[in-house]
TrEMBL record:
Mg(2+) binds at D22, S51. This is Geranylgeranylglyceryl phosphate synthase. Transmembrane segments: none annotated. The keyword Lipid biosynthesis applies. Pathway: Membrane lipid metabolism; glycerophospholipid metabolism. Its EC number is 2.5.1.41. GO terms for biological process: glycerophospholipid biosynthetic process. Its main location: cytoplasm. Its cofactor is Mg(2+). It is found in: Cytoplasm. The keyword Cell inner membrane does not apply. Prenyltransferase that catalyzes the transfer of the geranylgeranyl moiety of geranylgeranyl diphosphate (GGPP) to the C3 hydroxyl of sn-glycerol-1-phosphate (G1P). This reaction is the first ether-bond-formation step in the biosynthesis of archaeal membrane lipids.
């Protein structure tokens, strides 16, 4: 089954949770433990990426490790064309629509497109919108973070993404953000678009995940959670239950 079909068929039943794993921060040995525990805790799939310290070698190794450990879909969440692993199932083929740099609007995509074709990676077209504070993703992607008090501006970007043909809209507060994307922004975007809405950044508790889903997210992404959790399987189960029970 294609990953796009996997996502849409699961979404018909309930919202999804994706776990973001960063090979720049996590060793392959640790990835085995994290992937196993999060899969057992009910995550719906894995994203592999990060803003710094990624090479093709460590992304390849991470993807292979996760796939062998869990047999769940692994989607690349790339920053640079140079670390696009052909071993993943799919790639979020994304444009950072509020970047000030051509490189992140379309340059990295042009550089990686022939490799995506050659490897057969399934491209999942996505508009990536960095909302303040944006954190490292905003800095590395040279974004002008979208202000948290201007839902209309975020809606304009999301609609532009949909009209450009993108099947996914990702609202990103930035990994490690103190707060997730505001609920009124998520609601406004949800009411305006017809495509799949992904929300990530700063989601650390079942309660905040529940609010993000109630506001309209189809897919909730957490990254830092697996790195900071004291008893991962139990805490992740509570988080995925909060998302799945919407
Ligand atoms: C980053 O949205 C993801 O791209 C995850 O953020 O690390 O804050 O969960 P966190």
């Amino acid at each position: 089954m294609k990953v796009q079909e996997y996502i849409s068929s699961r979404r018909e039943a309930r919202p999804l949770h994706f776990t973001l794993l960063d090979p720049g921060k996590t060793s392959a040995d640790d990835l085995i433990t994290l992937a196993k525990q999060t899969a057992e805790a009910g995550t719906d799939g894995f994203m592999v990426g990060g803003s710094t310290d990624l090479s093709l070698e460590n992304v390849d190794l991470a993807v292979e490790t996760i796939k062998q450990t869990t047999h769940m879909p692994v989607i690349l969440f790339p920053t640079h064309a140079s670390s696009v692993s052909g071993k993943a199932d799919a790639i979020f083929f994304m444009s950072l629509l509020n970047s000030e740099s051509r490189q992140f609007l379309v340059g990295e995509q042009i550089a990686s497109a022939p490799w995506v074709k050659k490897t057969g990676l399934e491209p999942l077209s996505m508009a990536y919108l960095v909302v303040a504070p944006g954190m490292t993703a905003g800095r590395v992607g040279q974004a002008q973070p979208l202000p948290r008090d201007q839902p209309d501006l975020v809606v304009s970007h999301a609609l532009a993404g949909q009209y450009l043909g993108m099947k996914y809209i990702y609202l990103e507060a930035g990994s490690g953000a103190s707060e997730p994307v505001p609920e009124d922004i998520i609601k406004s975007v949800r009411e305006s678009i017809d495509v799949t809405l992904i929300v990530g950044g700063g989601i650390r508790t079942p309660e905040s995940a529940r609010k993000v889903v109630a506001a309209g997210a189809d897919i909730v992404v957490t990254g830092t959670f697996v790195e900071t959790s004291q008893s991962l399987k139990e805490e992740m189960t509570a988080l995925t239950n909060a998302i799945h029970s919407k």
